[in-house]
Amino acid sequence: MNITAVKTKPYSDQIFGTSGLRRRTSVFMQKNYIHNVVQSFFNAIQGFEGKTLILGGDGRYGSSKALQIVIKIAAANGVGRIIVGKKGWLSTPALSHLITLNDAFAGIILTASHNPGGKDGDFGIKFDLKNGAGAPLSVTNRISQCAKAITHYWWFDAPDVELGNIGTKQIGKTQVEVIDPVEDYAAYMQEIFDFKAIKKLFASGFSFVFDAMNAVTGPYAKYIFEELLGSPAGSVRNAEPKVDFGGLHPEPNPVYAAHLVKMMKAPNAPDFAAASDGDGDRYMVLGKNFFIDPSDSLAILTEHLDKIPFYHKRLYGVARSMPTSEAADFVAKRKKLPIYKTPTGWKFFGSLLENKKISLCGEESFGAGSNHVMEKDGLWAILAWLNIMAITHKSPQKLVQELWDKDGRVYYVRHNYEDIPLDQAQNLMRALASRIASLPGQKFGSLIVKSAEVFNYTDPVTSEVAENQGYIITLSNKTRVMIRLSGTGSVGTTLRLYFSRHERKLNEAPAEVLATVILATSSILQLEKYIGVNTPTTIV
Ligand code: VG1
Ligand code: CO
Known about the structure:
Distance between the termini: 54 Å
Number of helices: 18
Radius of gyration: 23 Å
Bound molecules: alpha-D-glucose-1-phosphate-6-vanadate, cobalt (II) ion
Strand order of the largest sheet: 2-6-5-3-4-9-8
Helix content: 25-40%
Strand content: 25-35%
């Protein structure tokens, strides 16, 4: 037989964050690093022998090697069939869809999502389970435990499998099917959305630009927007996935997609523009000279999604991550829909989606999705916007203005303090923990603390508990701040501060409306004392 047990030694840092394991590319390229984590996944789960695995990713630097490692370890562990996207490409939502479509036991996604790629960038791996959702904490913890104790991995000794062409190959008893990454996903989008209506919108002269940021959505967007929907050739930009994303940071927000924001400010700007991230699960949408905040976007979807036949009478409820603004709550309340507030990370939506508690969810970090797949889905969100505009004949700006007129506006901003030494970040959080109970009633600048608490979450379906998911402080003037540490970085730590304020005044600058709460927070947290700075690295 070609199957052997290969000795290995554990790495101490194979611990999962908000969404998978992410490290510097050089860390992933260490001897047996990927082997260990993939074998640990098989050690941590059961019942995969003879079953189907879906494999793909965003094609970033390191992927071609990693794909072969996964194939050989999966084959050696007895996986029956591996479905892999051509060139190893599969967006996260397309992969999730393929899991359910093929009744697979799991999916492995090689991506560090929005983190920059390349030799000096990041690499990562995410595991989806049978239901197409990201592995929950209980499973990722088990994988980490297995990784700590690993002594050997199973290896199928065979030449590399050619992934550049569609077709079926065999490695021992395991069948490897190389498929078109776009086809099934595009077909599914046509089941969900009214392509005829969107086609008509484009034919009427509605102009659109989509920027794939040299990441995995390029081929999807070219086919869907240009070929199927008739948006003119060239509407899709940066459409060729590149191993280093052509130097772009594939995170769709006004900082890293500043070129798109600039384009939308020009006099000849298109009617609508959008972008997505490395692995295609995030999105940003913009109207003419008009940035749409992701929390507002979730509110718009809550308001209008059920006008699309696929969702008609099927909007069961809505969920948002806790740091996401409460804009969607107001709509849900008007529409008498239940609203759930979960910790940051898409995996927390899984049980709610699966059990029909909700059919729509979103995060402030440019993520939205529905029960059509169990991962967030950037292109889906953009198509939903297009479909809503095709139905309502309203511009993005008009849709948002109408929302604010009804519910008021929640001004929102996120501050990121990147690359803080871990001990400093931990000291800051510990100090906050020790003072949190004493904060209510205290005055900071012109604001008084109304409430201050740690966010602990119990999943309403599984009763799984996630503790210490950040701190929520509400202050006078209907302002709120949420404080948490990022779980997707590869080195150092990122402190995230999320500020929001609900107002009836509609057309102010968010930075001005939020200035007092930003100032108060800086003294509540004693930022200077703990991390030596009080100006954020990025504001999004
Ligand atoms: C960030 C976002 C979070 C998102 C996660 C994964 O996590 O804040 O909302 O779910 O990234 O998105 P953190 O822990 O860094 O704040 V993705 O597109 O990078 O898979
Ligand atoms: Co992503």
